[in-house]
Structures are given as structure tokens and as C-alpha cells.
Specification:
Pfam families: Smr. The protein has 187 residues and is of the alpha+beta class. The chain has a domain at 65-184: 2-Layer Sandwich (Ribosomal Protein S8, Chain: A, domain 1). The chain contains 5 helices and 5 strands, in the order H-H-E-H-E-H-E-H-E-E. The protein has helices at 3-15, 38-58, 75-83, 99-115, 144-155, and strands at 67-69, 90-93, 120-124, 159-164, 174-179. It has a 5-stranded mixed beta sheet with strand order 1-4-5-3-2, with helices on both faces. Strand 2 (90-93), helix 4 and strand 3 (120-124) form a beta-alpha-beta unit. Helix 4 runs parallel beside helix 5.
Length: 187
């Protein structure tokens, strides 16, 4: 027997019978921080910056001509629209509306025109010379309503083409819009 064994035996005899204690629960630790998707945050920040730059580069100015044609529409039809040779059946004037109100009015107007088989409409957005507004995300002074109309019309499946109106019909302060016939529109 070694000295250690003797010491352990001596201690046990001095202490007497013992009852084993339950294992103590460890003290609480500080909560771990919630995981953050740092890569996703960086990607989103980069995408916002890229979007802002793209928006900056594509902003329309007061005198810029607005033009768009779906590939399925013959170029000649866009020429006729540009010259004002297609009769305008309804008109929406957005002067004095803020961007939110103008967007709601424009969506409702196009939907109404669609429901009533209107083929060509004029939207008066103004040139943006007196609004003094800046386009969201850019901080740049530009015609807010003109840029809003351009972007919104490009996204609609029922818009075949649009072009700035001829000078006698509003020039670059208005746009003529050619809508798809009801039977060809997607459901």
C-alpha cells in the first residue's frame, strides 16, 4: 500500500459515512447571440447599391421621350402611336398627385380601360419641371411621375406599347398607351 492509499483510508475513517451529493447544475452562461446572416446582409446592401446606380443611370429627365414596344407588336404600330395616328379613347391626368396616389390612380385607370375594351389611352404625367421632387432611392431631382409611369407601364402584361405624345397632345409631358385587346390578354 502506498502513502496515498493510506491517506485516503485515514480520511474516510475520520469523516465517517458519506452521502454522495447530486451533481450541481452548471451556472447559467450568457446567451449566445442570435445568428446573423452577414453574407446575406452584404448581398442585400450590394444589391440596393446596384439598384440605386441602375436607377440613377436610367432616370428620365423632363424633356426625354418615353418609348416602349413589346417584341410581338410590329414596329410600324409603334410609329403610328408615336405620330398620334391611333385615336385616344380615354385620358388620365396625374397633375398634382403624389407618387403613391398617382400609382393607385394609374393602376385603377388601366384596369378600368381593360374592363371596357379601351385600346388606346393618354396619361398626362407632366414634365416634372415644377414638382421639385426627388426620385426615391436616388435623391436626384427628376420628374417623379414621369419615371413612375414609365416603370409601371413596362411591368404590365396588358400594355403592348407606349410613347411620348406628339407635341399637340402633350409632348414629353404625356404618354400614349396601346393596350392589348381583351381576348389576347392573359387571364
Amino acid at each position: 500500500m502506498s502513502d496515498e492509499d493510506d491517506d485516503s483510508e485515514l480520511f474516510r475513517s475520520a469523516v465517517g459515512p458519506v452521502r454522495r451529493l447530486r451533481d450541481a447544475t452548471p451556472p447559467p452562461t450568457a446567451p449566445k447571440p442570435k445568428p446573423r446572416a452577414r453574407m446575406a446582409e452584404r448581398d442585400e446592401a450590394a444589391a440596393r447599391e446596384e439598384f440605386r446606380h441602375a436607377l440613377d443611370a436610367s432616370l428620365l429627365e423632363a424633356g426625354d421621350v418615353v418609348s416602349y414596344r413589346r417584341e410581338t407588336l410590329p414596329p410600324r404600330t409603334l410609329q403610328r402611336l408615336r405620330r398620334g395616328e391611333i385615336a385616344v379613347q380615354e385620358e388620365l391626368d396625374l397633375h398634382g398627385a403624389d407618387a403613391r396616389e398617382a400609382e393607385a390612380l394609374l393602376r385603377a385607370f388601366i384596369t378600368h380601360a381593360r374592363e371596357h375594351d379601351v385600346g388606346c389611352v393618354r396619361i398626362v404625367h407632366g414634365k416634372g419641371l415644377h414638382g421639385g421632387g426627388s426620385v426615391p432611392f436616388t435623391g436626384r431631382d427628376a420628374p417623379v411621375l414621369k419615371n413612375l409611369v414609365d416603370r409601371l407601364l413596362r411591368q404590365r402584361a396588358d400594355v403592348l406599347a407606349f410613347h411620348s405624345a406628339p407635341p399637340a397632345q402633350g409632348g414629353t409631358g404625356a404618354v400614349l398607351v396601346l393596350l392589348a385587346p381583351r381576348r389576347l390578354r392573359p387571364a
